[in-house]
From TrEMBL:
Domain NAD-dependent epimerase/dehydratase: 9-246
Keyword Membrane recorded: no
Keywords: Oxidoreductase
PANTHER family with a match to the protein in the record: NAD DEPENDENT EPIMERASE/DEHYDRATASE, OS08G0515900 PROTEIN
Protein name: Dihydroflavonol-4-reductase
UniProt KW Secreted keyword: no
InterPro entries: Epimerase_deHydtase (IPR001509), NAD(P)-bd_dom_sf (IPR036291), NAD(P)_dehydrat-like (IPR050425)
Gene Ontology molecular function: oxidoreductase activity
Domain of life: Eukaryota
Length: 334
């Protein structure tokens, strides 16, 4: 039974992969949610949100765009907390300029709206583990455990043209500076690669990459190399804990496990033999053995992260449910 005494919070980019799951958990927990989307009238983008438990009574969707100054003012003024998740995620079509502009100026745009609301309790910004882990080999000693004090190297990301990471690093750094200057209570959540069920039948960039792996695609995960993985429900829980815990401060890495792409492919090929998952993938970046120290998120209340098997089981079940993958039985008999 939801505790309906909770207040009203704003979730930016509410129709996105992670944000939709966060909206689901916030509604279930009793919050009123004011979600911002670019096109509230687009049923294909937002239809899945209206089916959520509590949506009819406690969900409101309004239009806002990261690139329009002041676009978030009304939404933020109506709320006591803000989850800023909207940001372009890596796709082939994002140009460097578009990526940097929406992430950095968009985040500042949202924070300028936050500054105008004196009764705002806290802002939770969705950053990324890509702001922590992308460094030259010399700065990643064997088996190093990276924690929240680590920042990726902007120069190294630029040299590899990883504009998504550059955008996320600059956006998070700018957010910390602005929040410090204007005394905004900011907490950031840094998920690794997010895997799990998608609420929308329309797949976003990361869910599409996972689907590709189950269809035999090798390129994306090879370029991703060694990476952390986390279940979408743990990401939503981490956002809520970061908002609710009075003592939450600073950055929180949110990750269940770190795997080389080849080890991930081998695990999935064994677990899902009915699908053409590549049995191995080459190491594009040589030997890497870094991990993440997630003790801070654990101390916040995320005692147990769901494992890699569970997150991919849930993702596959959702792909089958939405008709993106045939059920394993259908594949065997086809
Ligand atoms: N997925 C991951 O593995 C992962 C890992 C770490 C961090 N993150 C971070 O988590 C957040 C959400 O990612 P996601 O995977 O859920 O991606 P997603 O499904 O693509 O959602 C991104 C959202 O950002 C919105 N957006 C993009 N440009 C916008 C603009 N100019 N104005 C307003 N909204 C805009 C999109 O709105 P439309 O629906 O209108 O396009 C969409 O709702 C991002 O900040 C991302 O960097 C993701």
């Amino acid at each position: 039974m939801a505790n309906t005494a909770k207040g009203k919070v704003c979730v930016t980019g509410a129709s996105g992969f992670i944000a939709s799951w966060l909206v689901k958990r916030l509604l279930e927990s009793g919050y009123h949610v004011l979600g911002t989307v670019r096109d509230p009238g687009n049923g294909k983008k937002v239809g899945h949100l209206w089916g959520l438990e509590g949506a009819k009574e406690r969900l409101q969707l309004v239009r806002a765009d990261l690139l329009e100054e002041g676009s978030f003012d009304d939404a933020v003024m109506a709320c006591e907390g803000v989850f800023h998740t909207a940001s372009p995620v890596v796709t082939g079509s994002n140009s460097k300029e578009e990526m940097l502009d929406s992430a950095i100026n968009g985040t500042m745009n949202v924070l300028r709206s936050c500054k105008k609301n004196p009764s705002l309790k806290r802002v939770v910004l969705t950053s990324s583990s890509s702001t922590v882990r992308i460094k030259d080999e010399a700065d990643l000693p064997p088996n190093v455990l990276l924690d929240e004090s680590s920042w990726s190297s902007i120069e190294f990301c630029e040299s590899l043209q990883i504009w998504y990471a550059v955008a996320k690093i600059l956006a998070e750094k700018a957010a910390w500076e602005f929040a410090g200057e204007h005394r905004i209570d900011l907490v950031t959540v840094l998920p690794t690669f997010v895997v799990g069920p998608t609420l929308s039948p329309e797949l976003g960039p990361t869910a599409s990459d996972v689907l590709g792996l189950f269809q035999g695609e090798t390129g994306k995960f090879t370029t991703y190399g060694r990476m952390g993985y986390v279940h979408i429900d743990d990401v939503a829980r981490c956002h809520m804990l970061a908002y609710e815990a009075a003592g939450a401060r600073g950055r929180y890495i949110c990750s269940a496990a770190v795997l080389d792409c080849g080890d991930l492919a081998a695990l999935l090929a064994r677990r899902f033999p009915a699908y053409p998952v590549p049995r191995s993938l080459p190491r594009a970046y040589g030997e890497q053995s870094y991990g993440f120290d997630t003790s801070k998120a654990r101390a916040l209340g995320l005692a147990e992260f769901k494992g890699v098997e569970e997150m991919f089981d849930d993702a596959v079940a959702s792909f089958i449910g939405h008709g993106h993958l045939p059920a394993a039985e259908e594949r065997r008999h086809a």
